[in-house]
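#lab-general

N.A. 3:47 PM
ok so I finally got the sequence cleaned up, no stray characters, all 274 residues accounted for. can someone with queue access submit it? mine expired

B.Y. 3:52 PM
send it over

N.A. 3:53 PM
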Amino acid sequence: MLAMPLWIAVLLGIVEGVTEFLPISSTGHLIVAASILGVHDEKGKVFEIAIQTGAIFAVIWVYRQRFWGAARGVASDPRAQRFWLNLAIAFMPLAVLGLLFQKAIKSVLFNPLGVAAASIVGALIIFYVERDGRREVPARINSVDEMGAMDALKCGIAQAFALFPGMSRSGSSIVGGMLFGLSRQAATEFSFFLGVPTLIAGGLYSLYKERALLSVADVPAFLVGGGVSFLVALLVIKTLIRYVASNTLKPFAWYRIVFGLLILFMAKQGLLHL
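B.Y. 4:20 PM
back already:
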């Protein structure tokens, strides 16, 4: 593929910024959008991963005081040390499993049926967690600062389900956190924080691994896509935090079902090739 047109980079940046932190799978939406636009080749896949880094910088900006305080206190503040340790522990399951099984997962599940199935299964899990529209068991942890190492590991294991395309990284970590006793807001915030090492590492690894596919001509599209995803994600993060404080995730579950069925329909009509 030649250098990606900037208008396509803008569209994909918007898709990434909107979907990265919602429990609806940014990967699923990106590969569908890129397939429709005709840019879901090997270079396009690198682009899809790389612009996720733009969205994650929105988290760093929104929580810049938290990250700066944790960075300053890493040598002496137990609270800051626990924060970084929890992120490291939660990051490991997806990192290890991704390195071991990413090729197998891509070869078997990166198809319309796999993405649609993951989207619908994720919806059913949300319905289970949100049964009766409320948490049946009061949250055990109401703040990220209350999390221990085992809580972080459980959230990390939940996030690892995002290796299945269409499952959603944020959805897996948020819903998993709620299942393991975190409040809605604590689970959502930890999902944001956990996305920082996860998506930055994924973006850098993809760029390094596929560097032979890229050239200087690709830089403008990558910068534009990443910049747009950053700006859009800023709005989504602030809105989502306010929303989850007092609302159920069921609307996202219904959306996931519709999205999964739409993928199957488009694939059957020959409009989609993942």
